[in-house]
């Protein structure tokens, strides 16, 4: 495939003393050569070498900027095209000036993500790696960054490729059976197919299980704070937000009764959501709020259910507990600075599987224990392992689920004793769905949509 030559500022705007303009494409070296004055013409230098010099206006001879120019020839480059990187140590104004000259002398301004798109289209990286670059750009915490790095290295791709190989072998086996349909071959085949399908299904399920964590890492763990009015929900949200660095600020904020805050608790990014009390009501406006709370609950990864130790356990508390008993929930008994009217021992007995934290937000007690409990719930054992592949992308998760469904269909068909060519269709579909994760069988528009998410210069 032949492309034109593109250029963009590749370093974050307004950060650091050095800025880089990246140029990629067949004319990259020629374009910069028109502006560059140094010991040698760039067209004559070795690949992957750095050169000191100046950029000058070819018409007036005026010096534009003192530069270091890196020349990298195809194919050992990020885009697999000729790439030139111009390092200028001026600020924003001078880097823009350099970019403008490069654009004036033959390059086109790159669209967001276009460098990475080319890396993908030129076969340098596969789609899941490209998406991991998007994640890298957006990574909000160190952990998310590590996760994204791993994906760049292609762990997920390797795994998916292996699964697809298994499925291809299975399909090949079916072909043989269809060509030689003797009875006993059929018998063996059924057994073989079932085992293969069970195996692939298990691996997909494992990936999906880690996906739960991947999702957390990427967007923050959706954490709903619920409880009756006045138990201290807002106080808890404020305490957590105050103690921990807020991660994101440009998230739509307050609604009538749902307040959101992004915080980083011991490496776990949380999206805290303070909900209105969830109760039956006649008031329409309030009911909408309550509806929203129920919705929040449904989507939540973690529930913090707050109770007030200074008041006896109420029917409402019970109703809330019933509502969340099957979700990942931490019970918080607040206001321990007051006279206790709530039997926490009894609560522990009845809900032995739920972590229970006693707090006095007013006296700043118990917050450490709560933070530890949150970190434990998500990080104990799993993340420390360091060699897991995390799926951190909702498109991947959806495709994995579809692939899993197809495998389940295949297994059901086998169970019913349907002919193998029916099974074949399902297995093929699973193979295609997995292929979409790494960029096989993707339509042009999907590619465009994905790459338009990139920042400029990447
Ligand atoms: P929400 O309605 O559940 O959001 O509760 P708020 O966070 O608005 O708190 C209700 C009241 O309880 C406020 O007056 C808080 O100052 C108070 N409060 C919160 N935490 C504590 C605590 O640990 N001890 C005491 N004594 N009061 C608290
Ligand atoms: Zn509140």
Automatic annotation (TrEMBL):
GO CC entries: cytosol
Naturally occurring in which organism (per UniProt): Caldalkalibacillus thermarum (strain TA2.A1)
Keyword line: Coiled coil, Cytoplasm, GTP-binding, Hydrolase, Magnesium, Metal-binding, Nucleotide-binding, Potassium, tRNA processing
Name this protein carries in UniProt: tRNA modification GTPase MnmE
Biological function: Exhibits a very high intrinsic GTPase hydrolysis rate. Involved in the addition of a carboxymethylaminomethyl (cmnm) group at the wobble position (U34) of certain tRNAs, forming tRNA-cmnm(5)s(2)U34.
Co-factor binding details: Binds 1 potassium ion per subunit.
Cofactor(s) this protein cannot do without: K(+)
EC category name: hydrolase
GO molecular function, one term: metal ion binding
Family: Belongs to the TRAFAC class TrmE-Era-EngA-EngB-Septin-like GTPase superfamily. TrmE GTPase family.
Record's subcellular location: Cytoplasm
Gene encoding the protein: mnmE
This protein's record includes keyword Hydrolase: yes
